[in-house]
Amino acid sequence: MPARRPAARSSRSSGATRSVIPQLDWRAPQPAPIVLVSGPEEVCAERASAGIRDYLRAEDPSLEISDLRADDYEAGTLLVVTSPSLFGEPRLVRVSGVEKASDAFLTEALAYLAHPQDGATVVLRHTGATVRGKKLLDAVRAGTGGGVEVPCPAVKRDGDRHDFAAGEFQAARKGIAPAALRALVSAFTDDLTELAAACQQLIADVPGDITADIVERYYGGRVETSAFTVADTAIAGRFGDALIALRHALASGADPVPLVAAVAMKLRTMARVAGQRGSSAAIAAQAGMKDWQVDRARRDLAGWNEESLSRAIQATARADAEVKGASRDPVFALERMITVIATRAPFGEPASR
């Protein structure tokens, strides 16, 4: 099998040491003698591993696949599964649990880097949960063995999830309306695996572009109870709808603390953008945000002024303290916060016209 030299995307890995090996996107991995799949995001790591398998199978359907556990390793196994067979089929060896590897595996893996087998691709999966195996990772990242790295960093923030979902549709060359993408991401804020599955279901099921109505039809039950839907509805000034969304969220088991956190995050973004002049790209670069976040905040700011925004932020700060124990009635605290935000007036007073 010819040697592969994927182009480097970054000169620095997610670890503490400088990496000189190519850094590949998990959506477009390529095989190499050693492939280090690093980072905690399992969805991305599984895609990377599957992508390497599919790449190799497309080259040669007779690909032999072996799976090893680095934490439950029998001495000599790595050399056995990577050695050429009688007919010289290519070999793919997937090693899980390198972050908790046994001494025997680490010793043999380091030795293997010095003399990798022709026709073998060894995928090392390290979640980064521990520093176990650091010497092995450092050796791979230093170029020993002719490896590549596929970083799979955690996808936690709303913006990261938005980028993840957008990438799913871009990779499939599938159009999705911005409102539909926001609704889909809001419906799956806790589980990236579910978000990925939802994206793939829409890609497979919907023949044309994906609209907000389609997302509502598929996942409306989840969307209407999302914390971000409650926040969006209140910030848009739809008082009645915001209270209904809040009650649906609470009825479906939503915790008051993340509900307040979602509102607070939206208001903070609005406050950072308010009064700023210039292009979305310039403001995003200055504030450490994404262009789409600036655009969304600008739309959210319609009808708001400095006084009403300040009042909403104060009401949210008060609700945050109350749902964390400062009040005996967290539901009332939430309703008061939503009222202040949606009416843009002090609690108990009618909205100004």
Structural class per helix/strand content? Answer: alpha/beta
Mean pLDDT: 87
For the termini, the CA-CA separation is 73 Å
Unreliable residue stretches: 1-16
Chain oligomer state: single chain
Please identify the top-level CATH class of the largest domain. Mainly Alpha
- Looking at the overall shape, the CATH architecture of the largest domain is Up-down Bundle
Q: Give the count of structural domains.
A: 3
Radius of gyration using CA atoms only: 25 Å
Number of strands: 5
How do the helices and strands follow one another from N- to C-terminus? EHEHEHEHEHHHHHHHHHHH
Indicate the overall shape.
elongated
Tally of contiguous helical segments = 15
Major sheet, described briefly?
5 strands, parallel
The CATH topology name of the largest domain reads: Zinc Finger, Delta Prime, domain 3
> How are the strands ordered across the major sheet?
2-3-4-1-5
Helix proportion of residues, in percent? 40-55%
Please state roughly what percent of the residues sit in beta strands, choosing from under 5%, 5-15%, 15-25%, 25-35%, 35-45% or over 45%.
5-15%
